[in-house]
Write a structure and sequence with these properties.
single chain; 10 helices; 4 strands; elongated
Length: 476
């Protein structure tokens, strides 16, 4: 039975939690961004799922590389660790809402010396066991705002992981397409070198029988040597690109050499891009979603700072047993207890609390501006990718025509020179122009594909994975 003098304290302790219903500070509202109703570079189309956009290239090896990268990329794994950190921080913040209970037990042995009133030295033991508890009543919502802020931080960490998925899939695809393009350009260089070396041999033969000049021979050998000099550079770029892909997959530089060294054609996209509406971008791109989460966290921290302006109420209590005789420790007569509320309200702190409130407001303002900048940058990236894709397609058509024309020019120049109706320099110029045009066509084909990858990245595709499970070791 609780003694009557303490019943008032107990009643007050029980009523305080019922009062903890209000939360000071602003409530989060998703920011609004004004965007156009359509894209400048393309008519709006219905939004479609961009979860595995790389499948439009119909290249199983590319798909395999991206899926392996999602499992092994080190940057991605670090981001997943940060998600676990944010989740743990949210658990810590949530724990502050409940009471804390500590148990304790002790044995104290003491010696009391003799005195004028006591001639004997005494030694005694003091046994104590019990627990104490404390509970801060969140009357003004500071602790709940802390949980809200931690939840927003978790959202931001998850969107950061998603943003890395977008970047990773695009980077793997771009490197892979560049690799196949380099191998194609290497094959073109070797084929042109073979033709130019054959021309140089024929010129030497004609020189030996007096039908060509020494200058013609030197020019032919110079052109072949120039083309031959491009081959080691392309071979080095092929190897470096494979090394880059290995790093993206979290492996040593040589781990993909055996798999990717065999030449394969440059894959071409098999479908058009469903760009959707500009407003769709605000909900799809992880960097925009992360910016929204940061605004949410900053808004909640304003509430945390404002709650510090108000008093904090705590209920504390203790219960235990204390006796000098261990056999009688847990008797009713050895028990003790205490219970009561406490108030803590800093009256003067040199403006620290109000300065912190102003700080949190300024941070929220910065996050709002960062959100606007992120949206504008996203719109720019999509428009850039759209116009680049359109114009590169026109460029590629022109280069294809140039290759066809240069092949005809090589045939005509060679025939006229053989018949003695043209200068040898025309043959060399035609061969040089053909090699340049074929190399430019190969690069344009690569650029068309990489522009498509850039568009998918700008649209925020690649993180809403369906078949690929991204594991962070915590069941995500």
């Amino acid at each position: 039975m609780i003694p009557k003098p303490y019943r008032t304290s107990l009643a007050l302790c029980l009523c305080l939690p019922l009062l903890a219903s209000c939360m000071v500070g602003p409530d989060f509202q998703r920011p609004e961004a004004k965007v156009s109703s359509q894209w400048l570079g393309q008519a709006p189309t219905a939004e479609q799922n961009l979860a595995q956009w790389w499948t439009i290239f119909n290249d199983p090896q590319l798909t395999s590389l991206i899926e392996r990268g999602m499992q092994a990329n080190l940057d991605l794994r670090m981001a997943q660790s940060r998600i676990r950190q944010a989740r743990a921080s949210m658990g810590i913040a949530g724990a502050d809402l409940g009471p804390t209970v500590n148990t304790n037990a002790s044995l104290t042995r003491s010696r009391t010396p003799a005195s004028s009133t006591r001639s004997e030295v005494t030694t005694s033991n003091l046994y104590q066991a019990g627990f104490d508890a404390g509970w801060e009543i969140d009357l003004f919502g500071g602790l709940r705002r802390g949980v809200e802020a931690a939840g927003a931080d978790l959202d931001a960490a998850m969107e950061n992981r998603n943003d890395l998925l977008v970047s990773l899939s695009a980077e793997v695809a771009s490197n892979y397409l560049n690799l196949r393009s380099l191998q194609q350009r290497l094959a073109i260089a070797r084929e042109n070198l073979k033709a130019q070396a054959h021309t140089a041999d024929l010129t030497r033969q004609r020189f030996n029988v007096g039908f060509a000049s020494k200058l013609d021979v030197v020019r032919a050998e110079s052109l072949a040597a120039t083309t031959a000099g491009q081959i080691p550079l392309l071979e080095a770029q092929v190897r470096q690109t494979i090394y880059s892909l290995s790093l993206l997959l979290g492996g040593e530089p040589a781990v993909l050499l055996a798999e990717l060294t065999p030449e394969a054609p440059l894959p071409a996209a098999q479908a058009t891009v469903p760009v959707g509406l500009p407003s769709d971008l605000l909900l799809r791109r992880p960097d925009i979603r992360r910016a929204v989460a940061k605004i949410h966290g900053a808004t909640a921290r304003i509430g945390m700072a404002k709650a510090d302006l108000f008093p904090k109420f705590t209920i504390s209590g203790a219960f235990g047993y204390q006796n000098t005789n261990s056999n009688a420790l847990f008797n009713t007569a050895s028990s003790f207890w205490s219970l009561g509320p406490a108030l803590n309200w800093p009256l003067f702190d040199m403006g620290r609390t109000r300065s912190n409130l102003e700080l949190q407001k300024a941070i929220q303002e910065e996050e709002l501006l960062a959100y606007e900048q992120t949206v504008l940058n996203a719109l720019r990236e999509v428009e850039n990718a759209l116009i680049a894709s359109t114009k590169e397609e026109e460029h590629r058509k022109s280069m294809a025509q140039a290759v066809a024309a240069n092949r005809t020019a090589v045939e005509l120049a060679t025939a006229l020179y053989t018949a003695g109706q043209n200068d040898f320099l025309a043959v060399l110029d035609a061969q040089r122009s053909l090699y340049t045009a074929e190399d430019s066509l190969a690069q344009s084909s690569r650029t068309m594909s990489t522009n498509l990858v850039a568009l998918f990245k700008a649209l925020g595709g690649g993180w809403q994975t369906e078949k690929t499970t991204v594991s962070d070791g915590s069941g995500l």
